[in-house]
Amino acid sequence: MDHFARLGLPAALDLEPASLDKAYFALQRQWHPDRFVAKPAAERARASTEAAALNDAYRTLKDPLNRAVYLAELNGVELPGDGKTIDDPDLLMEAMETREELQEAVSPQAVDALAAKARDTMKAGLASLASLFLAGDKPAIRKALLRLRYLDKFAEEARARRTNLERSGT
Amino acid sequence: MTLMEIHEPGETPLPHAGEGSLGVGIDLGTTNSVVAIAREGKPAALHDETGKAMVPSVVGYPSSGGVLVGDEARLLVASEPRNVVASVKRLMGRGAADLHAVAGVLPYEIEPGTGETDMVKLRIAGKARSPVEISAEILRALRTRAEAALEKPVERAVITVPAYFDDAARTATRDAARVAGLEVLRLVNEPTAAALAYGLDKGSEGLYAVYDLGGGTFDFSLLRLEKGVFQVLATGGDTALGGDDFDRAIAERMLAERKKDGLAGEVDESAVKSALALARHMKEQLSDRDQTSGRLELGGVPSFHALTRPEFEAMIADPVRRTLDIARHVLGDAGMTAPDVQGVVLVGGSTRLPLVRAEVARMIGKPPLTDIDPDEVVALGAALQAEALTGGSDTLLLDVTPLSLGLETMGGIVEKVVPRNTPIPAQLAQEFTTYQDGQTAMAIHVVQGEREMVADCRSLARFELLGIPPMTAGAARIRVSFAVDADGLLTVAAEERTTGVQQRIEVKPSYGLSHDDMADMLYDSLDNAEADMTARLLTEARVEAKRNLLALEAALAKDGALLDAAERVALDEGRARVEAAMAGEDRDGINAAAEALETLSKPFAERRMDRGIREALAGKSMDELETRVGE
Questions:
Q1: Helix and strand numbers, DSSP H then E, in chain A
Q2: What pTM did the predictor assign?
Q3: For position A41, which CATH number holds?
Q4: Are the beta carbons of A34 and B10 separated by less than 8 Å?
Q5: For chain B, is the Cβ count within 10 Å smaller at the N or the C terminus?
Q6: pLDDT tens, residue by residue, B435-446
């Protein structure tokens, strides 16, 4: 069963966070191991497996990027594993430039500005995914997702750098 | 004993399930413990005859026989100091390897020969006793108190543990409960229990934070409350940080003042203890007034020390700021900012300090919630959960893993399988492959921590997957599955997918992750994120280069005849350049050398492919020829 089906939701890029939460909480009320404390071992084991599968589905679908990647894979778009080499020359260039900017940013404010820029680019990228999915343009979806994945990683690195700058500053 | 208990998720034995006996909530603390009961959603701590809810987590074994717990055990310190154990929680699930961390804190005799493959044992009153047995005495005393107060047998309990307790410590806690005749309904994380106590009481909704500053530990958790659902979004902390540090700062200042005044008196262990006791008293006084003073007498020489609240607050400003740093990081983990937080719950005696309250209020922008006694709030939450689990309730508690769980891969890199803050129960798997041609075994090394390199994380278990059929490097598909149950306990299984060679984990001795180590490791990961990333990229470049070298060597051994002498020399030089680069620290250099070699070996690869095709065709015509001959 795919993650959307498990939560009883349509397999769509757009997902209202509130409806995801609602579906998840309702199913966890049914399957969480806390509800099975007094039940026979076999039932408890089943509940644990179901609850874990729900958690996996929820965690994947909650984050817009993870959700898009998951939906793309459901639709037969093949993405390289996380952390593999970037095979898109444009993205490679962009990555090198932004990394350099991050290295040169010496104040938390400068790092924040770069992170904010990455987040904005991500937001725009996520918004433009819908039309690519609608058109079923797999190469374009792949390219867009790889870029989004890079931006996400960049934002995380910016956060680490900011923590370091703050710590050394105080 | 085995420190990491292996069982099918959800198959924890539960002998008394369904019976009507009462379930209590227990906060088994480092310094103090509390037992509480909830009825119809109303929790109450159980007091002794004198009205005290807190039981000091101190166990005494008097030479006259028997066991004393709490205040009585404390009284024994004067006459038989060696027969009294305090702070045993720090030793839960720990082995000899961890002891350096607590040396000096716990002046106990370690039972010789223990702690090498097992949890450490203490030698007290002439007998070896494990931390599990000693904790069980505290639990037994709490159980007795509960049975006396409720006039009914008590056989089941929810017991709280620090959010950062690892498998070994959680298992040890559960074992201690069993020894005390208590069936553990659930191990619940302390900050989560605190939120439970507040949430149900207030019917609150929205995002809440729990700021838990105890004697030696700090925890910060972020929870979302919604219609009876308690969803932990993120948690973090540091255990080298707490009220004990504040006492130490005051004590050190007093001892320095004595030294400056040229007062005699050797600073031995008992002098430090006296100074610390006075320091604690002065600290507590400064919560209610602007200045205080104390008289310290060491070796018969008295000295007088004054301390104002601003002076004291300047002394503790750094550690308090550190707690706020951690809190901000946890907020970041959850993708939230301080204004998103609707309320912050204070837990732990150290949150009584006005500076702590003021700083927390300033960061969150709202006055903290303090109407439940910070010393009892955790036990009250545990009691509510015990009632929910025995009597049923609409409350749903969704907790997370505090630290990432992963595996060691080539080059000592950690591949995270279960990232921190993953909701539990969790069952996640990742596929790995073989690194060398014909590899038939794979070592599986399970680690816990946030750093990128294995050496910086804590080792939880090692085992080996055997019987992998010989295949070319990268062809085998080895699936390693991690299952974390609702108590936060881990099970690992590995399986070769193409042939179905399966193996459950075999746990080698594991000392368990120390509470302090966990926090330190998490904190280190913030400090070292950049350096870690560089180290990881370098290692990845080396591993990738090595993989290509191995592939090329295998090809040369098989089809070396396809090359003329000059070509062979050029390739060998290219290989040597890659190897030289790999020995260095320059990632780009390694990648460049590897790429150059790839370009250089392209004609060789093409020739091998051509020959492969020719051989296939040639073989076919031979077959056909033979067939004709045979006709």
A1: 7, 0
A2: 0.75
A3: 1.10.287.110
A4: no
A5: C
A6: 888 888 888 888
